[in-house]
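User: Here's a chain of 500 residues. Predict its fold as tokens.
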Amino acid sequence: MLRWISLVATLLLNTVAVADPPNIVIIYVDDLGFGDISCNGGRGVSTPNINRIAEEGCNFRDGHSSAATCTPSRYSLLTGEYAWRKKGTGIAPGDATAIITPDRTTVASQLKKAGYRSSVIGKWHLGLGTNQIDWNQPISPGPLDIGFDECFIIPATGDRVPCVYVENRAVAGLDPSDPITVSFSGPIGDEPTGLNHPELLKMQWDHGHNATIINGISRIGFMSGGKSARWVDEDMADVLTQRAVRFIDQHVATHKNQPFFLFFNPHDIHVPRVPHPRFAGVTTMGPRGDVIAELDWSVGEILRSLDQHQLTQNTLVIFTSDNGPVLNDGYKDEAVEKAGKHIPSGPWRGGKYSAFEGGTRVPFLVRWPAKIQAGSVSDALICQIDFLASFSELIGEPLPPGAGRDSLPLMRTLTLEDRHGRDHLVEQAATLSLRQGKWKFIAPGRGPAINRQVNIETGNSPELQLYDLATDPGETQNLAKSNVSRVQEMQALLKKIEGN
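Assistant: Prediction complete.
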């Protein structure tokens, strides 16, 4: 059925494509929950710049990442394919090889066909290179090999080594006389670790983050060398935001007649949460609240740059998150103790790692003043996996055969001409779930019902689960036994999708 819909959409591309394609900015946040922003009811921090996107565009209240963790969501967004279809798309280690190979069609490579210049800035976490990565040599393949014209990225996550930026194909600022060595199998060199030298830490680790200390914070994995290239956590938001603004500035100066695609991936609000001093203490929720405020500033800087260059009217801005929220994710930063009445997942159950709705129902704000009425709200079911087919529809470029197999062309949904969106969506956590209208089916799963390390319900249960989200958004009443036919239909559809 999905393939049939895609075929029909391809035949209609020329009637959907716009004459003056917009610039596209995706702000892809890390670990931000549906309820973490004030326009979705967040109470612990004000997010006026993020709210502006909703106020001047649309708040999609049933918008989703494809998975409840980062790497699979990022993979799906770029490739239009459910990550569970491909081995090796779980949470990637810091030294993972490239998960998206150069032969794959991506959002960036598809937009390139229509003349877009593309840049990815910030967290990558999709692997780099092949075999064992040598961080002291040119790194390939990477973002430049799958459609991006430039990149300035964090190779994996802020809590993993190597704690350096990669610019295009090389570690930025690396001194060749101080080469980088990285290991995830055991200690290397003589760098102190959080396990053995907790007195050196400015933030204590809680679980799993007790290896090499960089900038007073112990990480996952071991690293030596590369001292001139190491990032300073407190400056990360400034560095990444400035690079994003610089890309827009330089594009206008040198390619003003060419559309651009900016894929901006802030580190915030992932752990370790270390805000710049000007944001430290601005909320009552400790570092987690403070980095939400810092994130809001970053968004404001990008919106301000678009305003200054008079690009706002014809720029499609999408603000969303790679998965649901988590409080304690490996460091003792008082996220749990200081949450107060703030509920990061909003009305949804679960969060990061969870099969419940809070795992993938995330902030999903879309602004395009030329096409989207300001202050709109939509309850259409939509997913980040649909960006590939939707942008292809927008620019009038059919997808190559086999590309974006799970991506649907929903440009009319994004511009509010269609208020329904997807008929169904598969959500990925430790087990798979299926959304169809108001119904949520969770397949039987193995493993604990609660992830004790982060204190989040996983949704794993040996029993079939069915919830009516219209009357029970918190997924508290399992209706599987009283709706056997509905369960059987959804179970059969999920199995069919898995087999396609």
